[in-house]
Amino acid sequence: MLVGNKVLVAVAGAAIAGAIFSAAPASAAVARPMSTPDVPGQCSDGTNIRSSWPNGAVLGSCYSNHSLTVHCNNGNEDNFWYYATDNTTSVTGWMYAGYVSVGRFVSVPTCR
Question: What is the pLDDT of residues 34-43, one digit of tens each?
Fold first, then answer.
């Protein structure tokens, strides 16, 4: 009986762990890091704000006179994008990192 109880507890524990640590579906919203503050940034004139990188629908455009908050990056060194909010227009989405500046020694966390 004792062996059976240990097996039952292990199976129940694995089921609970699986429910807690299961991966989110690909269509889930971008989760921002909770422990890292957002970073102020600046975009080049006419930078597209996209629903996904690299070819998502264009949600809006960012301009250099807009206030920009960078939340995180995609973690892809070969095709680097930021997930950010244009505070002037309230549009949030993906912007190609080549058109966004965040400061020389600022570390932007990877989106999770």
Answer: 446 799 999 9
Contact of 71 with 85, CB cutoff 8 Å: yes
Of the options 3.40.50.720, 2.30.30.40, 3.40.640.10, 3.90.600.10, the CATH number for the domain spanning 39-101: 2.30.30.40
Element (H, E) at 95: strand 91-96
Q: Which of 21, 84, 96, 20 is nearest to 55 (CA)?
A: 96
Separation of alpha carbons 33 and 109, rounded Å? 7
For the chain, domain boundaries: 39-101
pTM over 0.85: no
- Residue 9, SS3? helix
